[in-house]
């Protein structure tokens, strides 16, 4: 398993700073400086003049550097954020990594920016030795076939895709490696932006391998494509969404936008966030953490639906009426008359609030700084919550409140191996019991926390996320019964048109998560379908 972790290869290049033996000598005293000046030979004097001219040119260059356009800034950022380029789960591959050119013109309007042609596929390499196939994908890749099962026999028609219009926030078409988007309605925050960005990075990483596509994307929480609404499953629209309700939904699960960054909440792309959390895990290890269950999040108002009902129930598990439920909970509430929101810790301490946190860039709500408790609670939001992966990354033992919603991560997890199960109908008692038993058996509780954290770090690495996306879209494309075409009013998008027009953290996170090389190796090997699945 450890062989699959993405590792950075840091290289340092020494810059020559001397032209002869004397050029690197720094005088220790004024007398030595005078001696050096009086003993310069004519030849060395010429050398001194040359060095002076070079220094003068550097000074002039520094002034010009301040006027460089966005292209230079972005390229520098890409180099400074460089990570290991060879995928760890295909480390033995000798396939080349082909750099991808990226630059921004002085024009930053999205309408004025033009997209270059797609990256060229890498040169063909010799086939693998017989029997030496790419590593097997993680087991959760089997859900790809489960999600696509309704259309397996009849295929996907254009009419079925367009029946998804009432659910779609945007339509994505890929033709010959170029991406086109037609937007139907705005998404919350930048969900749609970073979902599209993720697809663009897949097109860069696996240039020439992503098939032609026509996909409807929904960026909301609750799945709405129900099997009971259609006489025949294949008549249902294939709609891509971040999660699905297990009992009856036919949505196709896709990685959520926050893997590439969540700028509104000051959450960096997944690999960079993992690095920060790892440092905090090393600083405060499990036995040294507070022996309670921790949760922090938005609760909202009781009349606003399912999300708020279950989270309001969770808040009853704070210390109250003399009951100690072993829970330490943050909540965020709003006072409409003052137009302010306050974050409440437990039930007494008022702090600055949700609206302040947004204005302050969530600088005081750092995810790594929340890894201070032995136990962390995961509870659904409006459906699934993207906080899930950050909670598991902490090395804390996760108390997972049972939920009918599944995303790419949650349906891969195993109770008592990656987390401890919490009964949603008796949360307080279930949380207290789990914490008490964990503190009585700390080695076992710590092991569960470490196994859950290891899973999200390795099995949910960006390497595997991109492979999941590639396999899902490839299998989906095989089912299309028509040739995709660019919709009317669709706009071509590319890394240049998105990153060069962005600003602030949105641009920073795009640069941090940008794929800089076309890979020449194969994705992991898709495992067979789940046993018992119909052909």
TrEMBL record:
Residues in Glycosyl transferase CAP10 domain copies: 209-483
Biased composition (Basic and acidic residues): 1-12
Keyword annotations from UniProtKB, A to Z: Membrane, Transmembrane, Transmembrane helix
Annotated region described as Disordered, given as residue ranges: 1-26, 108-133
Compositionally biased region (Pro residues): 116-126
Record-linked InterPro entries: CAP10, O-Glucosyltr/Glycosyltrsf_90
Transmembrane segments: 43-62
Protein name: Glycosyl transferase CAP10 domain-containing protein
């Amino acid at each position: 398993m450890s062989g699959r972790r993405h590792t950075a290869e840091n290289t340092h290049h020494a810059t020559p700073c001397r032209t002869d033996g004397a050029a690197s000598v720094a005088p220790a005293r004024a007398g030595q400086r005078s001696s050096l000046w009086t003993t310069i030979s004519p030849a060395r004097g010429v050398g001194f003049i040359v060095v002076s001219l070079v220094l003068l040119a550097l000074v002039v260059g520094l002034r010009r550097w301040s006027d460089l356009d966005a292209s230079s800034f972005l390229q520098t950022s890409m180099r400074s954020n460089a990570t290991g380029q060879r995928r760890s789960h295909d480390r033995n591959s000798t396939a080349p990594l082909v750099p991808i050119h990226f630059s921004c013109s002085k024009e930053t309007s999205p309408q004025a920016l033009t997209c270059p042609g797609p990256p060229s596929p890498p040169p063909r390499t010799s086939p693998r030795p017989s029997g030496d196939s790419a590593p097997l994908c993680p087991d959760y890749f089997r859900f790809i076939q489960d999600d696509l099962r309704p259309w397996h026999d009849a295929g996907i028609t254009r009419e079925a895709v367009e029946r998804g219009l009432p659910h779609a926030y945007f339509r994505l078409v890929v033709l010959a490696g170029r991406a086109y988007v037609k937007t139907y309605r705005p998404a919350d925050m930048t969900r749609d932006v970073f979902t599209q960005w993720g697809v663009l990075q897949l097109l860069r990483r696996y240039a020439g391998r992503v098939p032609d596509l026509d996909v409807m994307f929904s960026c909301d929480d609750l799945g709405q494509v129900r099997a009971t609404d259609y006489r025949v499953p294949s008549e249902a629209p294939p709609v891509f969404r971040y999660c699905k309700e297990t009992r009856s939904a036919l949505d196709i699960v896709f990685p959520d936008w926050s893997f590439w960054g969540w700028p509104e909440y000051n959450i960096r792309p997944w690999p960079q966030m993992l690095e920060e959390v790892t440092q905090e895990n090393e600083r405060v290890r499990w036995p040294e953490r507070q022996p309670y269950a921790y949760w922090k999040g938005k609760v909202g108002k009781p009349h606003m639906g399912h999300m708020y009902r279950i989270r309001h129930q969770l808040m009853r598990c704070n210390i109250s009426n003399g009951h100690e439920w072993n829970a330490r909970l943050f909540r965020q509430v709003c006072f409409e008359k003052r137009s302010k929101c306050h974050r409440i810790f437990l039930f007494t301490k008022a702090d600055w609030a949700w609206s302040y946190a947004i204005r302050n860039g969530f600088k005081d709500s750092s995810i790594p700084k929340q890894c201070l408790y032995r136990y962390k609670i995961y509870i659904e939001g409006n459906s699934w919550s993207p906080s899930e992966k950050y909670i598991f990354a902490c090395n804390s033992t996760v108390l997972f409140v049972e939920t009918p919603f599944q995303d790419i991560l949650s349906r891969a997890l195993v109770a008592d191996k990656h987390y401890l199960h919490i009964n949603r109908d008796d949360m307080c008692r279930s949380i207290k019991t789990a914490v008490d038993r964990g503190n009585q058996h700390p080695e076992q509780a710590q092991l569960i926390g470490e196994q859950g954290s290891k899973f999200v770090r390795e099995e949910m690495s960006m390497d595997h996320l991109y492979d999941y996306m590639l396999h899902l879209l490839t299998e989906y494309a095989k089912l299309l019964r028509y040739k995709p075409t660019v919709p009317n009013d669709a706009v071509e998008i590319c890394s240049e048109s998105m990153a060069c027009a962005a600003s602030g953290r949105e641009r920073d996170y795009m640069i941090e998560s940008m794929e800089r090389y076309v890979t020449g190796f194969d994705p992991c090997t898709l495992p067979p379908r789940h046993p018992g699945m119909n052909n």
